[in-house]
Amino acid sequence: MKKLYALRGASQCENTVKDITDQIAAMYDELLTVNKLDETEIVSVIFSVTSELTAANPCTALRKSGRAGELSLFSVQEPECDGSVERIVRVIVHCYLDENRMPRHVYRNGAEVLRPDRAGAKGLYQRMAQLKNNSL
Q1: pLDDT at 121
Q2: Is there a contact between 106 and 31 (Cβ–Cβ < 8 Å)?
Q3: Cα separation, 37 vs 53, whole angstroms
Q4: Which pLDDT value is given to residue 3?
Q5: Hey, where are the domains in the chain?
């Protein structure tokens, strides 16, 4: 039996069409891979974007990457809040998975700091090292 889930993800991007497209495609592919998800099981995809990312709409970027051709996509701008992590694209993928499956979320390329509990130890330690070295 299938159950409706909301998979979450986020990625930090440079403000270029290429990087936004590359990061969105990689995040989307990873969500599908780790959840053993086929696009036919996806109901909709909603993106939110911080105000610094103006080079490309993530919906357009995902479609131009050859993915999500028949899916309902939507994008909104994140509210600006003091102390927020910059250059972030977040995603919610509404999909059907087997009801006994544990959904897995994807936080990558600097976005691990948003949800260290979901990013895994490797992602969190890499992000902490980047922040410590001011390498972002």
Answers
A1: 41
A2: yes
A3: 28
A4: 95
A5: 2-132
Longest dimension (CA), the chain: 48
User: Per-residue confidence at 72, pLDDT binned at 50, 70, 90?
Assistant: very high
Q: Which CATH architecture has domain 2-132?
A: 2-Layer Sandwich (3.30)
Say how many Å lie between the first and final Cα of the chain, rounded.
44
| 72-77 sheet: strands from edge to edge | 72-77, 42-49, 88-98, 2-12, 106-108
- 108-136 pLDDT tens trace: 988 888 866 655 544 444 444 445 444 44
Query: Which whole number is the average pLDDT over 60-69?
Result: 94
Taking 3-state DSSP, the helix, strand and coil percentages for the chain, each rounded to the nearest 5, stand at 35, 30, 35
pTM of the model: 0.82
C-alpha distances out from residue 44 to 14, 19, 91, 96, Å: 25, 23, 10, 11
C-alpha–C-alpha distance, residues 99 and 81, integer Å:
36
Residue 19's contacts (CB-CB under 8 Å, 6 or more residues apart) are 13
Amino acid at position 13, single letter: C
Strand partners, 8: 92
